[in-house]
Design a protein that fits this description.
Helix content is 33%, strand content 26%. It is an alpha/beta fold. Strand 1 and strand 2 form a beta hairpin. Helix 8 crosses helix 10.
C-alpha cells in the first residue's frame, strides 16, 4: 500500500504556523547545546539495564482510558482523561501514581499503526510525564482491585508543537515488594489529534452508514387475503426496539452527515411487522407477532432520518457477490436471482421510505474484489463497486493516500474505501476504554491522511456491514468529532465516485489468487446454489397451474433472494436449514394438488368409463392441468381409441374434480393403468397413480344364454302353430261335407281350430307328439338393452357396462 510509505510531506501552512515551528526549534537549541556539554554518556550496558528496569513489570497494572475529552482539543481547551487502574499482580503496589505522557509527533499513518501495536512501556518512545499537579496518586493498589482516576490538564500545559497526531499515554508507576524501586507498571496509549488553526486543504470524507440485518422472514404466508407473513423468529423486534442495534443505528445516524446504505429486505421485513404477522414456534405451530408499535416507531424515525440524505439501496437481501462469483455462476438461474434482487430494490425502498434511492453501487464483503466478483457485481446493472484499500492495493509508489475513485475498465468505477479507517471499529467495543481508543485512532488516521499532501482528496469510510450497538456508538462519536473538526468536510458517496481520480493510483483489480482465504472459507458452496436452482424449478412447475401465481411467486422469490444473502457467512448450518425449509414448503404446497389413489377395478363388458379424481387442497384454484390416463396393455384395454387419453383439469380451491375416461376391452385379463397429471407444457406434475383393471367378458356370455333361450321359445311357438293347422285339416276330412258351411253361418265365423283354448292346444300336443304339425306363431320382439350409466365407479368398485 502507498500508506506503508506515507509521510507528512511539506504541506503549506499559515505564516504563524511556520513561526511557531521555528520558535520551537530555537527554543530547543540551548537545551541541545547544554546536552552537548554534559559528561560522556554512560556505557551501553548501563543504558540497557535502566531500560530493563523501566520496562520490567509494565503489564502488572491494567490501565484503562475510559474517556478523553475533547477528542480533538483546541488551544483554549482542557483535556480530561478518566479511567481505571487495576492491579493484576499478586503483590500490592505502593506509592502508585498515574501520569499523563505526551509522546512525539507521529509523521506517518504507519507510525500510528506502530504505536497501536506496542504493548510494553518503552522509555524514550512513550514520552515524558506532564508532571506537576496533573497526576493522580494512590498510596496502595490492592491486587484485583480497580481504582478510578480523572486528570484534567489545560492544552497550553502540554507544550504541543506543530499540527499533527501526538501519542498521548496514561501510565502508572509504583513499587512492589519484589521490585522496591519506582517503575512503570502499566501504560495505555492513545492519540491526540492537534490542528487548532484549521487545515489549508480539507479532506472530503464520505461516511457509509449501513442498515443491514440477517434474514428473518420465511416463504410461508397465511391463507387470508392479505397473506399474513410468517417470521422465522422475533429477533428483528429486538434489534429495532429501544437500545437495540438497529434502533441505535437510526438514532445516531440521523444526527450525522452520512450516506445511508440500506438492504431493502430489512425495510420489507419491518414494514411487514407493522401489520399482522406470525412467528414460527415449535413444529408447525406459529404465534401472533406483537411488535407492531415498535416497527412503526422505527420506520417513522428512519423516514425522518433519511430525508434530504443520500440513500444507496443494495440488491434485495444483500446477495453475497463473492460466493456467487466463485461458486454460483455455473449454476443455471443464479445470476437471474441477482437481477431480480436488483430490480425490486428501488421500488421497495421508495415505497417504504418515500425517497428515491441510488441503485448503481455493489458492495462485496469487506470490499474484497477480484475480476470475477467485479463481473458479477456489474452484471445486474451496477457500474460502481465499493472496494477497500487492503484489496485494491496501491503499487504506484504514491507518497499519499489517493482518492477513492478508480476507473477499472469496462465503464466500471471502483470506489476504494480506506482500510485503516474502515476497520477501526471492529471487535468488542462494549468496554468504554476500547471504544475511546477506537475513536482516537480513527481521528488520528484521518488527520495523518490529511497532512500527507496539499492535494484535496475524496476518502470513503466503509465500516462493517452490521455494527453492534456499542460499535455504532463509537462510530457516531468519531464521525461527530470528525465532522466538527477542522481538516475534513462531508461528501456523499456518489460525489466520491465521480471525483477526478489520481493519475498515479492503481486501477488493476487483483487476481483471484489474492482473494483472502479466510473470506473464501465462509462463502456459500456450489451445493447451496444448486439447491436454490432446484427449488426454483419446483416453483416454476407449480406456479403455472395456479389461478393467482403472485400469491406464491412473490414470497418464494424474495425467500430465494434471502438464501443468497451475505449474512449467511459464518452460519453455514443455519443457511442449510433455511434452504431445506424453503424446499420442503414448496413441496408441501405442490402436494396439495394430487390424484386420489385407486384400487383394482373389475371391468365387465366390452366398454365402460373409468373415473379419476383430482383433489385440490389449496386455497386458490388450479388450472392449466392435463390429466393423462395410460393403458400399459392397449391390446387388452384401450383408453379412448388409443393407449392413452388426456383431458383438461380445473379445480377450485378446496374442491375435487372427477374426470371420466371411456375404455374398451379387447380381451380378458389384467391391464395396468397409469394416471398422471401434466402441466400444459408437458411437464409431469406430482406422482402418478397406478391401478389394475381386470377385464372379464361376462356380458357377452349372458347375451348368448338369453339369445339361446329366446330362440327355443320361437321354435316352440312355431311347432305349436303347425300342429294346430294339421289337426284342423284332419278334422275336416273325417266330418265330411255339411249342409250349411262354416262360411255361411254369420254367428259362428270361427273354424273349430280357431276356437281352441290354450288347454286344448296342450292336450293336442300331448296327443300328436312334440310339435309335429303345430301351427306357426309370430316370434316376440327382441327386448331393449339398458343404456350405459355415465356415473363414475368408486375406488375398488365393480364396473359393469
Amino acid at each position: 500500500m502507498a500508506e506503508a510509505a506515507d509521510f507528512l510531506g511539506m504541506s503549506p501552512s499559515p505564516a504563524r504556523r511556520w513561526v511557531r515551528r521555528t520558535g520551537a526549534l530555537f527554543a530547543g537549541a540551548p537545551l541541545l547545546a547544554g546536552l552537548l556539554q554534559l559528561p560522556a554518556a554512560a556505557p551501553s550496558h548501563a543504558v540497557g539495564q535502566d531500560s530493563l528496569k523501566a520496562a520490567s513489570g509494565s503489564n502488572t497494572v491494567d490501565v484503562a482510558v475510559d474517556s478523553l475529552t475533547p477528542t480533538v482539543p483546541g488551544e483554549d481547551d482542557t483535556v480530561t482523561v478518566s479511567g481505571t487502574v487495576t492491579n493484576k499482580g499478586k503483590q500490592p503496589v505502593t506509592d502508585a501514581q498515574v501520569d499523563l505522557r505526551l509522546g512525539g509527533l507521529l509523521n506517518t499513518r504507519s507510525d500510528v499503526d506502530t504505536v497501536v501495536g506496542r504493548t510494553d512501556y518503552q522509555q524514550g518512545l512513550d514520552g515524558s510525564p506532564v508532571g506537576g499537579k496533573y497526576v493522580k496518586e494512590f498510596a496502595k493498589l490492592t491486587p484485583g482491585v480497580s481504582q478510578n482516576f480523572s486528570i484534567s490538564v489545560p492544552v497550553d500545559k502540554l507544550d504541543l508543537g506543530g499540527d499533527g497526531v501526538y501519542q498521548f499515554s496514561v501510565s502508572l508507576s509504583g513499587e512492589t515488594a519484589a521490585r522496591p524501586w519506582n517503575q512503570v507498571l502499566g501504560i495505555e496509549r492513545t492519540f491526540l489529534p492537534w490542528q487548532p488553526d484549521g487545515a489549508d486543504t480539507k479532506t472530503k470524507t464520505t461516511v457509509l452508514w449501513p442498515l443491514i440485518s440477517t434474514s428473518h422472514m420465511t416463504a410461508q404466508t397465511g391463507s387470508d387475503e392479505s397473506q399474513t407473513p410468517v417470521f422465522r423468529d422475533d429477533d428483528l423486534a429486538k434489534e429495532i426496539s429501544p437500545g437495540g442495534r438497529l434502533q441505535q443505528m437510526v438514532s445516531l445516524g440521523k444526527e450525522l452527515d452520512v450516506t445511508w446504505v440500506i438492504d431493502p429486505d430489512l425495510l420489507a421485513s419491518v414494514d411487514a411487522m407493522t401489520e399482522s404477522y406470525r412467528v414460527q414456534g415449535d413444529g408447525d405451530t406459529t404465534t401472533a407477532g406483537t411488535h407492531q408499535g415498535v416497527a412503526n416507531q422505527w420506520l417513522s424515525e428512519l423516514q425522518e432520518a433519511v430525508q434530504d440524505k443520500e440513500v444507496v439501496a443494495l440488491p434485495f437481501a444483500d446477495p453475497d457477490l463473492a460466493s456467487l462469483a466463485h461458486n454460483g455462476t455455473n449454476v443455471t438461474g443464479s445470476l437471474s436471482h441477482l437481477k431480480e434482487a436488483t430490480d425490486v430494490a428501488a421500488d421497495t425502498v421508495e415505497s417504504v421510505l418515500h425517497v428515491e434511492p441510488t441503485t448503481d453501487f455493489a458492495w462485496p464483503v469487506n470490499g474484497a474484489v477480484d475480476p470475477s466478483i467485479v463481473k458479477v457485481a456489474t452484471s445486474a446493472g451496477a457500474d460502481k463497486v465499493i472496494a477497500r484499500s487492503d484489496s485494491l492495493i496501491e503499487t504506484g509508489g504514491l507518497p499519499y493516500t489517493p482518492s477513492a475513485a478508480r476507473p477499472i475498465g469496462g465503464g466500471t468505477t471502483a470506489v476504494v474505501a480506506d482500510a485503516r479507517m474502515s476497520t477501526v471499529f471492529q471487535g468488542n467495543l462494549t468496554r468504554a476504554s476500547s471504544s475511546t481508543l477506537a475513536v482516537q485512532r480513527f481521528l488520528a488516521q484521518s488527520l495523518a491522511l490529511n497532512l500527507q499532501s496539499d492535494k484535496q482528496r475524496s476518502i470513503v469510510f466503509a465500516p462493517q456491514r452490521m455494527p453492534t450497538a456499542s460499535q455504532a456508538q463509537a462510530m457516531a462519536a468519531a464521525v461527530t468529532a470528525l465532522q466538527g473538526g477542522s481538516w475534513s468536510q462531508s461528501q456523499e458517496l456518489t460525489a466520491a465516485a465521480t471525483a477526478k481520480p489520481d493519475s498515479g493510483a492503481t486501477t488493476k483489480v487483483p487476481p483471484a489468487s489474492r482473494y483472502p482465504s479466510s473470506l473464501r472459507k465462509q462463502e456459500l458452496p456450489r451445493a447451496a446454489f444448486e439447491q436454490i436452482a432446484t427449488t426454483q424449478n419446483k416453483l416454476d412447475n407449480f406456479k403455472v397451474i395456479l389461478s393467482d401465481p403472485s400469491r406464491v411467486v412473490t414470497p418464494f422469490g424474495r425467500a430465494m433472494n434471502r438464501e443468497m444473502s451475505t449474512s449467511w457467512r459464518g452460519r453455514s448450518a443455519e443457511a442449510a436449514d433455511s434452504r431445506n425449509a424453503i424446499e420442503a414448503y414448496i413441496n408441501s404446497l405442490a402436494d396439495q394438488v394430487t390424484l386420489i389413489e385407486k384400487s383394482e377395478i373389475k371391468l365387465s363388458g366390452r366398454s365402460a368409463t373409468i373415473p379419476v379424481t383430482v383433489q385440490n387442497n389449496l386455497v386458490q384454484g388450479v388450472e392449466h392441468l392435463v390429466l393423462r390416463l395410460t393403458s400399459t396393455s392397449p391390446r387388452r384395454l384401450e383408453i379412448g381409441s388409443d393407449a392413452y387419453d388426456e383431458q383438461d383439469v380445473s379445480v377450485s380451491g378446496g374442491h375435487s374434480q372427477t374426470v371420466k375416461f371411456t375404455t374398451s376391452a379387447q380381451a380378458n385379463g389384467q391391464a395396468r393403468v397409469i394416471a398422471q397429471l401434466y402441466t400444459e407444457d408437458g411437464q409431469a406434475y406430482g406422482l402418478p397413480v397406478t391401478f389394475e383393471v381386470k377385464v372379464t367378458e361376462f356380458t357377452a356370455t349372458v347375451m348368448l344364454v338369453i339369445g339361446g333361450g329366446f330362440l327355443l321359445l320361437v321354435l316352440a311357438g312355431f311347432r305349436m302353430y303347425t300342429q294346430r293347422k294339421r289337426a284342423a285339416a284332419r278334422d275336416a276330412e273325417e266330418d265330411g261335407p255339411q249342409e250349411t258351411g262354416a262360411d255361411d253361418d254369420p254367428e259362428n265365423p270361427e273354424t273349430p281350430a280357431d276356437r281352441l283354448t290354450p288347454e286344448d292346444v296342450l292336450k293336442e300336443e300331448s296327443r300328436t307328439g312334440d310339435g309335429e304339425g303345430a301351427p306357426e306363431q309370430p316370434s316376440d320382439p327382441t327386448p331393449d338393452t339398458a343404456a350405459e350409466s355415465a356415473d363414475p365407479s368408486g375406488t375398488g368398485e365393480r364396473v359393469d357396462r
